């Protein structure tokens, strides 16, 4: 086979590895279709060309506008194989790339946008609100932009607040959400009635996995009523438990903040005799913050996440491991995700059934429980030796801060991408980065996808090789 690659080059070697006459083949690609208002509003026509054409800061040239043929592949890592043989992944999925479209389906002068924030706090929420307001105003000339107060319930219980760039100009400096947030209060009929009554035709919903499940229902109801309203979700999840997207804004800030707690726990533990520093980090069902904070800190001796079980007593248990560490180093740092070990903590039936207003299971404090178990163990096995456990729970300190620079940039990209998609008539979608490229993903796919830590891939092995902690598999 003729080749342009020098003998011995990597490409040549790769080619030689396979049968000369058989080209490499990739699995077929399926494009995830994105809902568009025109699907159920047959008479809908574009409102005109994108106003960016006339924006003094943009010079749209060839390739500036994104078309529906521009896609982002879900998996960029795959295994090449000779034609005919299955490769990994067996099926490629592509999402439509985010960005400005040539034509828009909303007349900016009649556009009325609503922005709502739901669920727990996450660094960057205010930046996303700010960028939505500024982006709608500056990029598209929209002048009717409203904030919904205190989450989903705000649609039907409080008057919307009119927003302008002047009002939000410094919101990116502030933690939390100036609009307010809440759990629960999801009354579909009341929410969609209120959206209609207020005359909103664009709805931007910022929230986590629960919020996205609610957004799907709003989108479906809007569709059922055949309303000319674009609905979009912007994932906010400090826990990083929303699937398909790489990560949410706020996640990196949270990992960075967690370093401070781990550092303090390490200092306390090192300064004590047989000192244990114990840190509980956020993560209801996923251990992403805990894992990333462990890997970046390098001071952690044991990392406990909801995706793996652990046990305290006996061979291969946590106590045996810590005993060894204290003997070797005189101190140890344990970092535990809030959702880890929940099945080990004794609880009453009432505690078993407790749910928050959104229906999420209420966890018992694994940190406080571990601290108490550690003390009981030491007193039992080493009654005459000094021992200290310093327990730090930085949860609200971590999520109440403003976003760091990286997350702030993400907030701008995600907000502008959401605006471009909605202005182009897309609806029922979420914006987020996939392998670093912002894409539009059907809301329903995001609402169903979970993002657990895989304990079968190299990252978890990396954690275990850094900490040398046991695998907690009972022999
Ligand atoms: N399955 C669902 N259907 C409709 N609304 C939901 C659903 N799950 C949660 N919600 C609503 O979404 C909002 C935020 O949910 P929550 O779980 O508290 O936070 P997050 O969105 O951050 O996960 C709440 O108002 C809640 O009532
Ligand atoms: O005390 P609150 O406000 O109910 O929030 C606690 C929860 O909020 C979070 O920080 C974020 O969770 P959500 O994404 O569901 O809002 C979790 O880590 C934590 O379990
Ligand atoms: Mg959630």
UniProtKB/TrEMBL annotation:
Entry EC number(s): 2.7.1.11
Source species: Hibiscus trionum
Family annotation (NCBIfam families): PRK06830.1
Highest rank taxon of the organism: Eukaryota
UniProt-annotated binding residues for substrate: 237-239, 282-284, 338, 396-399
Name this polypeptide is given: ATP-dependent 6-phosphofructokinase
Subcellular location: Cytoplasm
Functional description taken from the UniProt entry: Catalyzes the phosphorylation of D-fructose 6-phosphate to fructose 1,6-bisphosphate by ATP, the first committing step of glycolysis.
Biological process annotations from GO: fructose 6-phosphate metabolic process
Binding site residues for ATP: 120, 183-184, 208-211
Record flagged with keyword Nucleotidyltransferase: no
Enzyme class: transferase
Residues at the catalytic site: 239 (proton acceptor)
Signal peptide positions (record): none
GO molecular function, one term: metal ion binding
Residues marked Important for substrate specificity (site): 210
């Amino acid at each position: 086979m003729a080749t342009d690659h020098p003998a011995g080059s990597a490409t040549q070697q790769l080619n030689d590895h396979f049968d000369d006459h058989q080209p490499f083949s990739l699995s077929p690609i399926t494009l995830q279709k994105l809902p568009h208002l025109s699907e159920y509003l047959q008479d809908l026509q574009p409102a005109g060309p994108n106003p960016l054409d006339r924006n003094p800061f943009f010079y749209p040239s060839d390739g500036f506008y994104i078309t529906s043929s521009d896609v982002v592949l879900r998996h960029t890592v795959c295994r090449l194989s000779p034609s005919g043989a299955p490769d990994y992944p067996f099926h490629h999925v592509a999402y439509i790339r985010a960005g400005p479209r040539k034509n828009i389906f909303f007349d900016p002068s009649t556009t009325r946008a609503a922005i709502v924030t739901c669920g727990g706090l996450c660094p960057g929420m205010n930046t996303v609100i700010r960028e939505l307001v500024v982006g709608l105003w500056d990029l598209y000339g929209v002048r009717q932009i409203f904030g919904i107060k205190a989450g989903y319930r705000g649609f039907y219980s409080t008057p919307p607040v009119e927003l302008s760039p002047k009002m939000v100009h410094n919101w990116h400096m502030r933690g939390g959400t100036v609009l307010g947030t809440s759990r629960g209060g999801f009354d579909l009929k009341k929410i969609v009635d209120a959206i209609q009554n207020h005359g909103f035709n664009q709805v931007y919903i910022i929230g986590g996995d629960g919020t996205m499940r609610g957004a799907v229902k709003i989108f479906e109801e809007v569709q059922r009523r055949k309303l000319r309203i674009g609905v979009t979700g912007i994932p906010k999840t400090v826990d990083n438990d929303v699937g398909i997207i790489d990560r949410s804004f706020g996640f990196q800030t949270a990992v960075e903040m967690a370093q401070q707690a781990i550092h303090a726990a390490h200092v306390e533990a090192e300064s004590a005799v047989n000192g244990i520093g114990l840190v509980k980090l956020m993560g209801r069902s996923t251990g992403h913050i805990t894992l990333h904070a462990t890997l970046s800190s390098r001071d952690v001796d044991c990392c406990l996440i909801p995706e793996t079980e652990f046990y305290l007593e006996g061979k291969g248990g946590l106590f045996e491991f810590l005993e060894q560490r204290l003997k070797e180093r005189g101190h140890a740092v344990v970092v535990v995700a809030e959702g880890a070990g929940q099945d080990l903590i004794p609880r009453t039936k009432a505690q078993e059934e407790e749910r928050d207003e959104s229906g999420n299971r209420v966890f018992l404090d694994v940190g406080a429980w571990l601290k108490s178990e550690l003390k009981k163990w030491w007193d039992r096995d080493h009654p005459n030796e000094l021992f200290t456990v310093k327990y730090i729970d930085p949860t609200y300190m971590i999520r109440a801060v403003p976003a760091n620079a990286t997350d702030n940039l993400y907030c701008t990209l995600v907000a502008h991408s959401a605006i471009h998609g909605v202005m182009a008539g897309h609806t029922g979608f979420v914006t987020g980065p996939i392998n670093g490229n912002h894409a539009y993903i059907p809301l329903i796919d995001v609402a169903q996808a979970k993002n657990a830590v895989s304990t079968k891939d190299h990252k978890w092995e990396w954690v275990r090789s850094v900490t040398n902690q046991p695998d907690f598999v009972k022999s």
